[in-house]
Amino acid sequence: MSFLNSFDISASALTAERQRLDVASQNIANTNTTRTESGGPYRRKMVVFQEIPLNSVTSSGNSAASGTFRSTFNRLLNKTAKKGGVQVTGIVEDQRDLYPVYNPDHPDADEEGYVMMPNVDPVKETVDAMSATRSYEANITAFNAMKTMAQSALDVGK
Fold first, then answer.
1. Phi/psi at 47 (nearest 5 deg)?
2. CA nearest neighbour of 145 among 156, 153, 133
3. Do 135 and 13 form a contact (C-beta atoms < 8 A)?
4. What is the pLDDT of residues 3-38, one digit of tens each?
5. More confident residue, 152 or 82
6. Fewer CB in 10 Å around end: N or C, the chain?
7. Rounded CA separation 19/23 (Å)
C-alpha cells in the first residue's frame, strides 16, 4: 500500500460518513411526515456501505519485462482501480411496519380515525447521527496524523 492510499481511504470514509449523517438528519426531519410524493407516510432510510478493496499493482522488478517507463507511467496514470476504503452503494428504505396513531382530525386519517406514522425512531436516529459524527472525527484524526507523518518525513530530508 502506498503512503498516499491512506489519504484516499480516509477521504472515502469522510464522504461516506457525511452521507450517513445527512440521511439520519433527513430521517429526524421527517419524523411526523404522513404524506410523501409517493402518497404514503415517510419511511426511514438507511445508508448501505461497501468496502472498496485495496488493489495493488504488481511488478516483476525487471524493467525490460514491464515495458518502458512511458508505458508503465501511462498505465498507472489511466488506472481506474480503486485504492481501498469505503463507498456508499445505496440508500434503502426500512421496510419495518408503520405505526397507527389515533387522530381523527388529521387530514390523512382513515375511516376509523387512525393515521399511519413513519417508522422513524428519533432516539435511534440521534444515536446514528452521533455515531456518524464520531466516525467522521476519527477519520479526520487519522488524516491529520498521516499529514503530520508526511511533513515529518519531508523535514528529515532537509
1. -90, 135
2. 153
3. yes
4. 678 888 899 999 999 999 999 999 999 999 999 998
5. 152
6. C
7. 6
Q: Is 125 exposed, middle or buried (0-12, 13-18, 19+ CB in 10 A)?
A: buried
Dihedral over alpha carbons 9, 14, 20, 26 (to 10 degrees): -150
Give the number of other CB atoms < 10 A from CB of residue 102.
10
Q: What is the mean pLDDT of residues 112-140?
A: 95
Q: Which segments of the chain are extended strands (E)? A: 45-54, 83-93, 99-102, 114-117
Region at 61 (left for phi over 0; alpha for psi -120 to 50; beta for the rest): left
Listed residue (98, 89, 100, 99) closest to 46, CA to CA: 89
CB 45 within 8 A of CB 21: no
Mean pLDDT of 78-84: 62
Which residue carries 495493488 as its cell?
56
Start-to-end CA distance of the chain, whole Å, equals 25
